[in-house]
């Protein structure tokens, strides 16, 4: 596969995913804004519950979803349907068994976790509702990973981004109309997961690979799957814990109201990951294919280009957040959450540096370096815990944001160095400078005239940053030959009737 062909394939998959992700982010932020309007306390309790649910769910999945994506893509390249089915069914059995056990354990430990650790009785019912749906969440991740391995990104978009968010938002509105309670809000969240599970089963079975209806005799792959996946379980778990460490420790040292205010910063800062998430939807299956076919030249070129796209998009988002942080917080969550404006900037910068980890980690995954990734994540998580425990009692939300941003940035730098040393691929190129300068210049211009973007006009200021930056990059030819061909190809398609 040529460089252009590979990038077009990633671009096509990313475009579909971007549409769904944009919808997901829009409705996700709207959902959180609705919940936040019930008050920082309710929002904080639900946020803690969702964080703990994510922790249990991640353990239940055991990293098998990433293993499925990798090995199904590999055996698909080898045209081995028996092992494809074996990977999927092995992952399903393991995930269902373990998730069911964890769901039961979590249900009975809910009161202990809520009262003894977080000193909050209202958290008990939230945990019991959410922990019951762990098996549904674990299995849907396996089904979605299967569709991604076949490079059908749209089915993840439909099931997770569209259906889950629509159902969750719809039920939340009903709950708010009949009288908001943390129990009702928890049911709304759970209903979205179950709806997404049903959709993912349908798409995998009817549109991608019929696991339940096919007569193919599967070749079970328990050992191969677990050997690859278990380090990723702990890697993903520690990454998730790193995301929630600040909220958990704020809940421990402070109270649920502060947790609620702090969680106004997270969803907005997470927009830095918007394009990386879209590109990664199909990046791992494609580079796994390239590794299997031995096409290192295309693999290296694809890696460099995608990493640069992540850099530029992240820089634009950080610029917008740095200028309009207070406007964003007040517009989405209200003036009760304005204290989160400084933590928002800190988190955005940390997430920006960390966004490099998306391509570097998946490159290491394709070369089976999962244990190294696990070791890196342990170091990052330990640093996060130590910093958060030291900074939160003194500086509250700002200390929490600083701890998370610092540990995330450190992990990204370590991973980038390792990918360069082990895989022998250089990342930094002259195009970074050519594309970064227009973004910095545009940001300086918008910052100088920021007084003209009052009220809802701040949205125009945000939109102008990428618009002006991309125009300058295009006019100054600050793009590589591959990107030039992709631009010409895209313009040609737009001109077609």
Q: Can you characterise this structure?
A:
- This protein is mostly helical and 497 residues long.
- The protein has one domain.
- The chain is 84% helix and 0% strand.
- It contains 19 helices and no strands.
- Helix 7 (153-178) packs antiparallel against helix 8 (182-208).
- The chain is globular.
Q: Structurally, how many domains make up the residues?
A: 1
Count of individual beta strands: 0
The largest pleated sheet is described as: none
- Structural class by sheet pairing and helices: mainly alpha
Residues in helix, %: over 70%
| Arithmetic mean pLDDT | 80
In short:
By secondary structure, the chain is mainly α. The chain contains 19 helices and no strands. The longest helix is centred in the C-terminal third of the chain and has 54 residues.
Q: What descriptive keywords fit this protein?
A:
single chain; 497 residues; mainly alpha; globular
Topology:
Layout: H1 3-36, H2 40-61, H3 64-77, H4 81-117, H5 122-131, H6 134-149, H7 153-178, H8 182-208, H9 222-253, H10 256-262, H11 265-269, H12 274-293, H13 296-332, H14 341-354, H15 357-366, H16 370-423, H17 430-448, H18 458-475, H19 481-495
Helix pairs in contact: 1-7, 1-12, 1-13, 2-4, 2-5, 2-6, 2-9, 2-10, 3-4, 3-6, 3-9, 3-12, 4-5, 4-6, 5-8, 6-7, 6-8, 7-8, 9-10, 9-16, 12-13, 12-15, 13-14, 13-17, 13-18, 14-16, 15-16, 17-18
């Amino acid at each position: 596969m040529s460089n252009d062909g590979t990038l077009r394939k990633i671009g096509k998959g990313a475009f579909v995913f971007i549409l769904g992700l944009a919808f997901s982010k829009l409705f996700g932020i709207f959902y959180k804004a609705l919940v936040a309007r019930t008050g920082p306390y309710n929002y904080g309790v639900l946020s803690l519950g969702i964080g703990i649910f994510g922790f249990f769910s991640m353990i239940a999945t055991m990293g098998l979803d990433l293993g499925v994506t990798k090995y199904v893509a590999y055996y698909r390249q080898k045209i081995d349907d028996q092992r494809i089915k074996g990977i999927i069914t092995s992952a399903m059995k393991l995930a269902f068994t373990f998730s069911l056990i964890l769901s039961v354990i979590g249900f009975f430990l809910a009161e202990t976790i809520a009262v003894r650790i977080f000193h909050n009785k209202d958290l008990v019912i939230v945990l019991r509702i959410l922990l019951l749906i762990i098996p549904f969440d674990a299995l849907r991740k396996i089904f979605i990973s299967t569709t991604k391995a076949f490079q059908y990104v749209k089915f993840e978009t439909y099931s997770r981004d569209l259906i889950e968010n629509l159902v969750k938002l719809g039920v939340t509105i009903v709950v708010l109309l009949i009288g908001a309670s943390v129990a009702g809000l928890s049911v709304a969240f759970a209903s979205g997961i179950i709806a997404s599970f049903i959709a993912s089963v349908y798409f995998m079975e009817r549109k991608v690979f019929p696991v339940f209806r096919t007569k193919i005799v599967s070749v079970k792959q328990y050992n191969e799957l677990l050997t690859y996946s278990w380090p990723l379980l702990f890697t993903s778990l520690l990454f998730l814990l790193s995301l929630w460490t600040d909220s958990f420790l704020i809940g421990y040292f402070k109270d649920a109201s502060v947790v609620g205010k702090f969680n106004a910063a997270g969803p907005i800062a997470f927009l830095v990951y918007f394009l990386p998430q879209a590109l990664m939807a199909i990046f791992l299956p494609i580079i796994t294919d390239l590794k299997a076919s031995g096409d290192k030249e295309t693999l290296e070129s694809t890696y460099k280009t995608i990493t640069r796209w992540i850099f530029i998009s992240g820089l634009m988002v950080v610029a917008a957040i740095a200028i309009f942080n207070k406007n964003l917080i007040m517009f989405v969550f209200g003036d009760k959450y304005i204290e989160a404006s400084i933590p928002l900037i800190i988190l955005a910068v940390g997430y920006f540096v960390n966004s490099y980890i998306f391509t570097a980690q998946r490159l290491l995954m394709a070369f089976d370096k999962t244990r190294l990734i696990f070791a890196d994540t342990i170091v990052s998580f330990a640093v996060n815990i130590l910093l958060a425990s030291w900074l939160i009692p003194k500086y509250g939300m700002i200390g929490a944001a600083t701890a998370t941003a610092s540990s995330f940035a450190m992990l990204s730098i370590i991973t980038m160095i390792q990918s360069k040393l082990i895989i022998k691929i250089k990342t930094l190129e002259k195009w970074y400078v050519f594309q970064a300068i227009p973004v910095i210049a545009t940001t300086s211009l918008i910052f100088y005239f920021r007084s003209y973007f009052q009220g809802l006009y701040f949205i125009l200021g945000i939109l102008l940053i990428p618009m002006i930056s991309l125009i300058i990059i295009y006019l100054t030819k600050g793009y590589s030959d591959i990107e030039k061909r992709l631009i010409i190809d895209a313009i040609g398609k737009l001109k077609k009737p």
